[in-house]
Amino acid sequence: MKRILVLLVWGLALLAHAQNSMDGTILRYGKNKVFLRSIYGEKTPIIDSTVTDTAGNFRFSLSGHLPGTYRVQWTKDGFVDLIWNMEDVKFITTLKNPDDSLQIITSLENRINRAYAKLDRTNQEKLQLLSPLIDLYPVKDSFYSSAVREMENTQRVQQHYLDSLVLLYPRSFAVRVAKVYQNPFIPASLGKEERMTFLKQHYFDKVDFSDTSLLRSMVFVNKAISYLSIYSNNRLQQKQLETEFIKAVTVMLGAASVNPEVFKFWLDYLVGGFDKYHFDEVITYIADNFQDPYSCEDQPRKSALQKKLETFKKISIGKTAPEIFVPDNNGKPIRMTGISSEYTLVVFWSSECPHCTAMMPKLKEYYEKQKPKRFEVLSVSIDTSRVAWSRFLREQKLPWINVSDLKGFNGKPADDFNIYATPTMFLLDRQKKIVAKPNTLREMEATLREFKLIQ
């Protein structure tokens, strides 16, 4: 570790001279295109591109850009993420396994970053091995005492190393990133469950949420994922997981609330992530308890995030579903509230969605077997092509109510029900209150059985 620090000290003067270039060599790439992407959480828009020479050399200018993490990318899986903080960056890598073969020629920031990441990986592997040993080994055995000392010393060494970097390079972007990644010191005397509880309570103690420049990296995304993983357990059912994630969300957004910009970033990230995996109870909880700090009620147009949160509240279980008023396949306007069946299954789908087209025959089978008929299906297509939609209806002879405004995801029903993927379903009772939100064919079948709508 001392050797690493000495090598880094030699580069201290480099940070005092602002430079703007990022030079790279991709060995065995030849003369091809390479892209430069900025990083803001999980967003990586292209900001520049160039063509390498025959030896794979290229240069990007970062003049006018802000310090942060940037991605140099040449193929889908061929890329390296590098820090730029007002210093020249020069590196060499290979076409395949670019991160493993990466050599930093010039850049103190990236040497700091990679040296700390290497130490952190090594120490985390040690701690993962030591923790179960301490849990299982007899306390009175001499090896137990050695394992305890090793566990605590491993953490202290890493903390001392980081403290040294902070003193040497207080303005370093890489050091500020490392401070966010640093886990709290865990006393070896704590048992397994106590360690988990301690981590949940102290995970963000040393995170500087006031440093908004760190949003120009993936550090807050990775910190969020690692914290949520503490609450995750593959033995839990989805409802149990949602209960655990609600606890995690409360801590995370509470910790980030000191900075509106970071708070909004995490709010947006969490809503998008839980939405993607259909953790509706978590999203409803977020919508009920948190709001976009930059979205005011008197603004003529609310932020997209705040609008999304408010929509989630409107379509949570127990709420009356938004009205749907669109034409059927014959052009006749259909109003959802005009459907008088005991239950209504609203299905958002598309003729271009393989999961949807595979689901429809099975749903048709259940629908036609009803005796007596207790549920109606309102099939809302988010197609944009009348030809494709009509062709599918003719071929499949779907016997229920088929409607579409042919505006895709931009239509009012898709907007009102926050539809971003298909199929998405809502089971409504006679009063058009949402009683279930199945997401797959399997969940749909289970829901119909739960309400005794199929055998």
Structural summary, described in words:
The protein is of the alpha+beta class. Among the domains are: about 15-105, Carboxypeptidase-like, regulatory domain (Immunoglobulin-like); about 230-315; about 325-450, 3-Layer(aba) Sandwich (Glutaredoxin). The chain is built from 14 helices and 15 strands. A five-stranded mixed sheet has the order 13-12-11-14-15, covered by helices on one side. Strands 4-1-7-8 form a four-stranded mixed sheet, with helices on one face. The termini are far apart.
SSE order and pairing:
Elements: H1 2-10, E1 21-27, E2 33-38, E3 46-51, E4 57-61, E5 68-73, E6 79-84, E7 89-94, E8 103-106, H2 108-136, H3 142-168, H4 173-181, H5 192-202, H6 219-231, H7 238-256, H8 260-276, H9 280-289, H10 304-314, E9 325-327, E10 333-335, E11 343-349, H11 354-368, E12 375-381, H12 386-396, E13 401-403, H13 412-416, E14 424-428, E15 434-436, H14 441-450
Parallel strand pairs: 1-7, 11-12, 12-13
Antiparallel strand pairs: 1-4, 2-3, 2-5, 5-6, 7-8, 9-10, 11-14, 14-15
Helix pairs in contact: 2-3, 2-4, 6-7, 7-8, 7-9, 8-9, 9-10
